[in-house]
Amino acid sequence: MMRVALQVTCINDALFPDTGKAVVTLLRRLGVEVEFPSQQTCCGQPMVNTGYVDEAVPALRSFVEAFTGYDAIVTPSGSCAGCARHQHQIVARRSGDTSLVAAVEETAPRVFELSEFLIDQLGVTDVGASFPHTVTYHPTCHSLRMLGVGDRPRRLLEEVRGLRLVDLPDAEECCGFGGTFAMKNADTSIAMGSDKARHVRATGAEVLVAGDNSCLMHIGGLLSRQRSGVRTMHLAEVLASTEGLS
Amino acid sequence: MSATFVGMPVFPVAARAALADTQLRHNLAHATGTIRDKRASVVAEVPDWEDLRTAGAAIKDATLADLEQHLVQLEAALTEQGATVHWARDAAEANWIVADIAQSHGVDEVVKVKSMATQEIGLNEALAAEGIAALETDLAELIVQLGDDLPSHILVPAIHRNRAEIRQIFLDRMASAGRPAPADLTDEPAELAAAARLHLREKFLRATMAVSGANFAVAETGTLVVVESEGNGRMCLTLPDVLVSVVGIEKLVPTWGDLEVFLRLLPRSSTGERMNPYTSTWTGVTPGDGPREIHVVLLDNGRTRALADEVGRQALRCIRCSACLNACPVYERVGGHAYGSVYPGPIGAILNPLMKGVGQDAQTDSLPYASSLCGACYEVCPVKIDIPSVLVDLRAQVVDAHRGQLPQAKSLAEAVAMKGAAATFASSRRLGVAERFARLGTGLARRLPVASPWTGARDLPRGPVESFRAWFRRTDGGRSE
Which domain holds residue A48? Predict the structure, then answer.
């Protein structure tokens, strides 16, 4: 029996717990009982990407303490998965702690973004979901370009009963969130996000779906300020939904 | 011709001003979108594109790893072919060498081939200080020079201008620089090009000295290569008696076989063409054909500093194609001037700090942060420069350079926040406590009338009543809900 851990991510833990609950519900429906190692905190990306690598070491220690020994570590975030797979070793090496380097060698390749886990590890595209709404999908940059999830999220969405998927113009262009970029270069971030929000509105979709709540918090914040009437939802919540099923 | 990047504000400040220029936003979105589409379609035609990228990166890496030997080989080959080789440690030395050559020939006017290296060292301004006029002959560089403007793109330096603005610059400024524009000039591209052609022709015919850069320098034969679209470069390379080329030491390729790879990568990545219209190559002096005196100034100016940077040295693979600029969502919105350098966009955001070093001026230190790390630049780079990874590494260098210093109020807040995050994320118990306070914080921030950088244009999410970890503990992962 595969031991699977949920890395919920710090932002989902604190601000979007429904996404974590959706992953638990979804995987349970597919016969996978995920564990939530409570020592977990954050992947360390906010510190690494702002240049504070030393400050990411404590978070990395919590990470390996929480997740060592699991066969798979599932996370509802392309960005956090990207950090674990591509940046943890940089942080570990800089710490000078060889045991941390060895621990990261164990954990990093076992981290899977949700759509990767569903399709590559479980081999499912129809997850038994139902969501009778018009949806557009934004492929987040790190899931697309750091992880290379490709069309996996779309393939999952296409199997959802009742869901009508409409194309987002310039879908692969960054929304402008970029972690602390959203604060340090707020004007540019907002300019990029405004164009993304404009494209979302042009689709006529009711719901914007993505695999990263950080990007959705940014685009959703703009859509909300514009009183656009479009809501944002994490991919996991759509895949967990059974709305309209009798 | 007095415009200069010296004293530019930090990136966020410059970007804010640029974002307010609606004409600029429109010009850039249109131009970068057009080039992006052209590039994508011609790259898709090449079945072995990924292999070509890998080859390009590998050739450059191997050359850089053994740069000294290849440079000595290049120098020997050039000298044997009758060229004079000069070595310049920095901008001042290179400028002095070029000015000295001009003065030794009694020249007070030189024509220029479009060249990033000479812009990097501020050659035109240095020559002007010696009473020597440097005349740009590339159409876009001419527009920038006549407009007393700064270049905003590596390949298309006047990308921030539309044709109506170009017409006005020609009408207002051409007369004072030589042959005036026709009074009935319209903004039709063909008419604008014709006006430039007439204006430039008298300069080509009059010039006795030309200054160029080089896209490539082939070490085995001592051959310099310039790749261009207009043919104006070839005029400069063949008509005057004296030709001086300022060449960055990373422009070197060992053999003609290596050159082939880059001549396939460059046009498709830069102009989105299968092949560029003009490729000029010259190997020293050929009696009775072209310049009678050939000088090559091999320029360091921070390149060896970049070469010493383990993560950043890959930036020296750059062949100045501009694909990363055109792909960059940040560049598309703020334009090139905000980067405060002749090298703007993603490559500029790494090249400038690598060549100048970080921790010395706030403008340079702001550049590695001028990116959302979306990775679009890496995806299109023909020599596979992992720009996002270099940006992140440079951010760490910026932070490290300021560790132990008394920080400014703004960076102090950031440093304190990061230290706080480090302590909080060290233990899940501390994080649990912090989350309860954070919910209070978001609740407050949503209600505060003051606009923070986030809430100025974006609503904050409504914080949940219970964190995920609290829910999981309370309900045994939903089993007892």
Answer: 4-121
